[in-house]
Amino acid sequence: MADFRHIEEQLRGLKEAGRYRPMTVWKDGSDAWMTVEGGKRALQMSSNNYLGLTHHPKLKAAAIAATEKYGVGSGSVRTITGTLSIHDELEWKLAAFKGTEAALVFQSGFTTNQGVLGTILGPDDVVISDELNHASIIDGIRLTKASRRIFAHKDMDQLEAVLKECGNYRQRVVVTDGVFSMDGDIAPLPAIVELAEKYDALVYVDDAHASGVLGKHGKGSTDHFGLHGRVHFQIGTLSKAVGAVGGYVATARAAKELMINSARSFLFSTSLPPSVAASCIAALEVLQEEPELTERLWKNADGFRSRLQSLGFDTGESETPIIPIIVGQPERALAFSKRLLEEGVCAQGIVYPTVAMDKGRVRLIVTAQHSEADLGFAADVLENVGKEFGLV
Description:
This protein is an alpha/beta fold.
């Protein structure tokens, strides 16, 4: 009888290579300080909850009110009976926030990339992607029949060379992250847009880590660079700075209507719970009413990064609240992460295949929730453990 021996062999291989990571179970909600199963308290430096909105009273009140009105679920996919008035309201407000004709909400950022790329790319098209784009972009592209070209990370000369070679395709789509999730650097979006316009290509930006972080009121990288009307597809997340869950695309009305009828991850998934949609609407209001949250986020991030660099840590290309500390081989990176947690700081180890084999790291994410005392504690722990590992 068939068994799991091949799966068990793969699991052993991960452990032998130092790339095995068990799940850490937390006993309370996302916050600056959290409790690990077993009772240990740790400063959370790995959360995407950039602005602390998961606990914002306005979001919680909106979720409760929507649950009382609509119930806990939507009951169906969007194209049957799952489009409730709260979903429609969220999309109109997202479009207004992003400055586009329309927006369409999906169940996650991952399924957004799958659905949008699967809709807009056909066998006569070519997609041109930055080599460090997120896994959801890579997988979304793999599910299409479009031709594929990769350009070296932020290499505009290579991007132009590829665009020159691809003039015979029906449609050219240049895809990039707005903020790259592993290194915390920002895409050179103005240069990408200029090249795309020169060679008649569409521009597609995944702003998962730029939503709520870059631009006025956290509107993202397009707003950050003043490129409104020149980026065709803005992908956003509702599960990081917005504090809930889900993803969306802000785009032209025609593109939205095509996706409603063609995007498989949209057509075959039940819509977001009404409480989530209501929370996201409230989050958009908070982003515009409380700019001090984003200001605090950047003050914390810039100050903390400078301190780590002054200690001698290699923070790579970071220029956002994502701050990696490059450690090296996978086993060493995960051991460094484990020691930090033992000392009260949760900084998740990131290793191959997410990053290159010799670029294992702990990825720190600074948030608006962190106090000066929190960040001082984290820096002291990092310095002490860093000395143990010869990193400072």
